[in-house]
Amino acid sequence: APKDKYEIAAQLATVLKQGTHYEVDEKGQQITITDTGFRDAERVVGKSLFDPNDPWAPFVMNAIKAKALFEADVQYIVKGNEVAIVDTFTGRVMEGRRYSDGLHQSIEAKEGIVVGTESQVIATVTYQSLFRTFSKLCGMTGTAMSDAKEFRKVYGLPVTSIPTALPVARRDYPDVVFKTKEAKVNAMLNEVARVHEAGRPVLIGTTSVQDSEEIAGALSDRGILARVLNAKPENCDREGEVISQAGRIGAVTVATNMAGRGTDILLGGSAAVMAKLRIRDGLVSAGCVDESAEGTEGIEGSAAMKVSLMDDSFFPAPLSPNAEGGIATAAAALLSDGSDGGDGPLPLLELEELVSIAAEKAPISDPAVLAIRAAYNTIKAEFAAVVDPEKEAVRKLGGLYVVGTERHESSRIDDQLRGRSGRQGDPGASRFFLSLDDKTLRTFGADRLKSIMDSFRVSDDMPLEAKMVTDAIDKVQNKVEEYYSEIREQVFTFDEVLSTQRDNIYTRRVNLLAASDDDILSTFKTYSQETLADIVPNYITAEGAVNGTGLQAKVQQYFPNSAVDAAAMDNMKRPEVEAYLDAAVLKAVDEKMTAVDAWRPGQFARVAKYLSLVQIDNNWSDHLKNMNFLKESVILRKYQGRDVLQEYVTEGVGMFETFLANSRRSTVFSLMAYTTPPSGSSS
Fold first, then answer.
1. Distance (Å, whole) CA 355 – CA 327
2. What number is the average pLDDT over the span 529-552?
């Protein structure tokens, strides 16, 4: 069984060695099995890896990929009994997404969890093609200028830079580069400890869940409490809480990529966010959450006790009796007699929504929400009395200090991390600590820098800190961005070919769905005649001799109820055979329709429509897979000096025509083989 194969391949991959059994291309995210690797793997499984009846090659290749290129808490995390993919750009889990072609199952086998069923791609579209279907496009981001050329080329959108309302007061220090990762991390920890000692808030940006956990652990060993924000469920659920505190005096926050977090880090902390959390906690403690309600279970156990309640040290000040009384009044309003059926304990998400509505300034009339708003305003004012002076203290310390631990593949992500500091004219600073062991530098050639450091006999803990070094790193990063830009451009170019086919097939589906019974019957008769036209030439020689027996057998394979005489066709010429079979097939279709509709009027058209759609969908899935194989094949032909795109277009058209023919023939075969349920059956 395939599941067993994934597990056996995962065990095999653990003993195969890089350099001996396989080579790894980090840049292209590919592995290549060596001759020795094939030999030893075949010895273990006891047969050729490419046995057509029992292939092992895909399982072994994916198992090695899972081992060599995919690391837990970097590309994915393990949540309970499932593998969840982490978006490298946002640091968030991509819910519902799975790797294709068996790779996800190989990672599950590697992690020792239950191997799921292999997913099948039934439709695909690139972001570029999807966005281009909209008649109007626009967007806003603080980091688009670096990709202005691509925005114009792909979407025809110009990028306009809007000046900041206040001058940027952030200082971006030159990068500090070390030879090894250990030296880099140690220097970064020393810098954080130095800054933290003065009380200045620090935000440490990492590129993976694993790095964020390791750095938080190392800071803890030094007696520095760091709040962690990454893709792990226990941290992801606390995103608002972590962000609201990140600008307070002495706060240290470790986060994976800060792209798209949607919340400003306010110096001194956010009184508004903390007030919302405090009133939510108070209402939960007063019994306003129904723990048995749907949506409150499975989140760290009890939703009320473990998700909602924050430690008292989180808040800037204890509440006054007046504020406590406001929470009690709001709780009483929520838990009133319930005569209208709308009061009483609420699910956690519903309670949080009410608190959010109360925190806004929109007019409301609900007494419970008004009571929550009154309590919220009181708590917010009390917290602001502490937070506002703290904001000035943080400004005097220099504002938020952003520390980067690695350059990302895209400079936009680094800019988004830097941009967390120095918002709205606030002071701030940023610095990146890098090493020549970092993946981006290692993959895209930091050899020149390493040779410079070796020639000057630079020790591991000696930093290179100069504009020349930062410029060199920028060039490496530009090289990375150009590489991925070329990949996106290539994907887009190839997808334009597939997009034409996609539009064609979706139009066909829409027409089938909207077609009347008469239209469906007409379409099916056309399918039958075209299928017959595919069959006939294979049984007539160039000299015009007809193989009546073979032709009869083939026609009756598709149209079992057709009355066809092999002997009669032996003596006919091609035009006569075509006319004879055309009449016989159309008669067979009419007879089939009469028989099916006798069971239930209109059943023939309904089944014809259903089968047409099913065959299009099934064959489209196979066609997408074949087009992907074709793309991989033609890309290699560029080394022969051939026009890759033209060959993809030419062969793709042929494959699309084959796909349409297969869908049509399968529909005809399935419908003519269809039998109605036994008499008296209601299904």
1. 12
2. 88
